[in-house]
Amino acid sequence: MPELQGREAMTHAGFLLSCTERINVVNGIAQIWSREPRWTQSAATLLADAYPGRHLLGLGFGGDRRPGGQAVAGDGRLPGRHGRGGGRRSRAAGGGMRRLLAAYGPKMLELARDRADGAHTYHVTVRHTAQARRTLGEGPFLGVEQAVLFESDPGRARELAREHLRPYFTTPYNIAKFLRLGYTEADLDGGRGSDRLVDDLVGLGRPRHDRPQAARPPRRGRGPRRDPGAGAGRVRHAALAPARRSTSVIYNVKDLSPWRTSSRTLR
């Protein structure tokens, strides 16, 4: 669940949890520069106590850095995954609260390994997922979000995908991520994105036929679902659909057919 269009992350999570009985709610992400560490921990602890096992706090860099501000993820008042003393964190210190960090580079992945329950990634390649798993090790959770677009015409599909990707091709921390992944300034193309980059980041094709490698479905059966050969603990498919003026993730589109197609095709 993103923090978009005026919907404050913690309030939104509490509302969704209060309206349901079984679904899990994950903040993906709550912006670290928009909130103070103390109140973020308090809100997440309250949700963990009120809805045991159903809330997962995802923290990320989104938003503008405030002069003199303290990032939530790095603040000592949030206990580490194994506690500051090396032991398991206690419930009194927020032991019921679980959190992920949006992490791409090696230092953030190390922070997610040492001071959170794992990492959440978006718009990355299968190779990055494998690299992230090596950094995290076997224990921490790794969740990967993969955009998919069911459109059989390659030109039309890339046009719609570029509308969705443009903000990511123009923000400094996303640009740094793509350059680390081996893409070039020519691939970024001033915010347009090369065909290679677009095809690698968004699963394009016809339902039941074209499944790009980044959008391969998790295996069925009991136990954790994994991205084959890459090390993801969970792959979430975000179906894109044309909105009135731009391509939007389906959250704000009344037509649910892309999600239904995604569910039938990728499960």
Task: Summarize the structure in words.
This protein has helices spanning 9-19, 37-50, 106-115, 126-136, 154-165, 172-180, 185-188, 195-201, 257-266; strands spanning 25-26, 30-31, 55-60, 99-102, 118-122, 141-150, 202-205, 234-242, 247-249. The protein is α/β, with parallel strands linked by helices. Strands 1, 2, 3, 4, 5, 6, 7, 8 and 9 form a 9-stranded mixed beta sheet that branches. The chain starts with 8 loop residues before the first helix and ends with a helix. Residues 73-94, 209-229 and 244-254 have low confidence and may be disordered.
Key terms:
267 residues; alpha/beta; 9 helices; 9 strands
Low-confidence stretches: 73-94, 209-229, 244-254
The count of β-strands is: 9
Q: Which descriptor suits the 3D outline?
A: globular
- What structural category characterises the helix and strand content? alpha/beta
One letter per element, helices H and strands E, the order comes to HEEHEEHEHEHHHHEEEH
In whole angstroms, the N-to-C terminal distance is 20 Å
Helix content: 25-40%
Give the oligomer, counting copies of the same chain as homo and different chains as hetero: single chain
Question: Helix segment count?
Answer: 9
Computed over alpha carbons, the radius of gyration is: 18 Å
Mean pLDDT across all amino acids: 78
Strand content: 15-25%
Largest sheet: 9 strands, mixed
